[in-house]
Design brief:
Blueprint lengths: L1 H13 L1 H10 L5 H21 L14 H25 L6 H11 L1 H13 L8 H27 L3 H46 L1
């Protein structure tokens, strides 16, 4: 249990090639660990918006909504996983959907390990030190992208160039899914209002 939640995730982010290989072929990754990482990431984003120092926090407290933080974290995560699975299925990728979810989830860990402590450190920073805050946030983002790249490359057994192409196509697929989803919701709303208007018309005439 301790290895699942502490030792192996740290092994993945510090030794990504070995870690993702073990995750795929030694079955050392756990979905429950990924769900825990997602929950911690959501908590990190909420705390970051609410408790960051005023020098780096530009959010209006009146506009904060934890439900939106949950949606805007989980939706892109699973949208990326579905889009990547869809693209790699057509490009002879060896990764299963579960492996894509786990690789993406483990890659998120640096965003928690760096951004969460920086949230509270920012409360005691002076203006000259805010550059360090932004540098650490940027480093966390770069670390995440690197881990995601290695994870996708490993689970699908791609070359680096094919992984780059796959990632670009995944982002495009995500955009297409969002467009189709928005279109479907808009069309569904119009159909609903049309039926509702007909219903009201029939009620008022009887």
């Amino acid at each position: 249990m301790k290895r699942d939640f502490v030792k192996f995730p740290l092994h993945v982010i510090f030794h990504p090639f070995d870690g993702f290989w073990d995750m795929k072929y030694e079955r050392k990754g756990k979905v429950r660990v990924v769900l825990t990482i997602l929950a911690l990431l959501i908590l990190t984003l909420i705390l970051q918006k609410q408790f960051s120092g005023f020098l780096v926090n530009f959010y209006d407290p009146r506009d904060l909504n934890s439900l939106n933080d949950i949606i805007y974290t989980l939706l892109p995560f699973f949208l990326f996983c579905v889009a990547n699975w869809s693209i790699t299925t057509l490009m002879e990728g060896e990764g299963k959907f579960k492996e894509i979810v786990m690789a993406t989830g483990y890659a998120l860990l640096p965003l928690i390990l760096l951004n969460l402590p920086m949230t509270f450190i920012s409360r005691i920073m002076v203006s000259e030190e805010t550059a360090f805050y932004y540098m650490m946030n940027s480093f966390a983002g770069i670390w995440f992208i690197y881990l995601l790249f290695v994870g996708i490359m490993t689970v699908h057994q791609y070359t680096a160039s094919k992984t780059v192409i796959t990632m670009i196509l995944t982002v495009i697929a995500m955009g297409i899914f969002v467009f189709l989803g928005t279109l479907a919701i808009s069309l569904g709303a119009q159909i609903w209002y049309f039926i509702y208007d007909i219903y009201r018309e029939l009620i008022f005439r009887t």
